[in-house]
Amino acid sequence: MKIDSGTMINNPAEGGPIFSALEKAGYDGAYTWEGAHDPFLPLVSAAMTTSKIELMTSIAVAFSRNPMNLANIAYDLQLLSKGRFVLGLGSQIRPHITKRFSMPWSKPAARMEDMVNAIKAILNAWQNESRLEHRGEFYTHTLMTPLFNPGPNPHGIPKIYVAAVGPLMTKAVARSADGLLAHPFNTPTYLNNVTLPLIDEALSSVNKQRDAFDLSISVMTGIGATEESHKKAVRACRDQVAFYASTPNYKAVLEQHGYEGLSSELNRLSKEGKWQQMGNAIDDEILNTFAVISESPQKLAMEILNRYGNSGERIAPILYSGELDLAADVLKALKAN
């Protein structure tokens, strides 16, 4: 199993030093996410200052972009990193796509499958020097002139991972992508009862082997190197669980644990902008269901592996404190177990 790390980057220039520190610590990969900043720009400096660690986005918002744009970015980051880039995509939710990005929304699972197939068609046309011919339900790409064709990438085509929670998206991802990014709002129960059976079903439907498909599991963790950073990390987990639980799309995860009644109340609070109250609504039982809370790297590592050690090909503890020395200690503890 590969062990990856999330990053808390507030400036694209931080990509180089942060990824270098994680590479030195021994992480197999690390990822950026699309929050207040672009997820791709920090990977430019990271690619130029590292040599081994895989560079990933988890996630970049797919539907705010188009397949050609994403193919160009993926190609260039694969070139710059000498074959270490993984394009991690996610759909986001309808209000953000339509109201924040002013982009169309319809049939997200089908659209995502078409988008992944379109990106692959573009990359393959460049790599194989063949005619570009993708005609899908949402995207059509049939024009590629020499001026805009970068030609074969000497480091090959990057993998594409996609985040999924619900059944339709999970099956669409398994059919089209190279891996699935298990959402941080997950549990072993949901993975075993819902996600893994759906992956197997979808892979079988397109004759794709399980060993040709990666499952990457993100884990929310509440741990800090000091008492203050520990409290902040636990609070960050509590707030993050509340935010995810307020999203109707994730209600199915709550249902696996009998918490479905929490969804409507948190959704109401989110619409009223009562973010502090949302976090306060997450008691310790709920918090520990969806996040791993510990005061020591050793106990944290043991619990993460107990929950997810046999489930996927990659695991990514999210350290909300952003403490790089602590990240190194957590990795050491995970490898020791």
Q: What is the assigned CATH homologous superfamily? A: Luciferase-like domain
* Mean of pLDDT: 94
Output the CATH topology.
TIM Barrel
Rounded to the nearest angstrom, the distance between the terminal CA atoms is: 12 Å
Task: Characterize the biggest β-sheet.
Answer: 8 strands, parallel, barrel
So what's the overall shape?
globular
How many strands in all?
12
The share of residues in extended strands comes to: 15-25%
By helix and strand content, what is the structural category? alpha/beta
- Quaternary: single chain
Order of helices and strands: EHEHEEHEHHEEEHEHEHHHHHEHEH
Count of DSSP-assigned helices: 14
Rounded to the nearest angstrom, the radius of gyration is 20 Å
Number of domains: 1
Characterization of this structure:
- The protein has 337 residues and is α/β, with parallel strands linked by helices.
- It has one domain: Luciferase-like domain (TIM Barrel, Alpha-Beta Barrel).
- The protein is 48% helix and 16% strand.
- Strands 1-2-3-5-8-9-10-12 form an eight-stranded parallel β-barrel, surrounded by seven helices.
- It starts with a strand and ends with a helix.
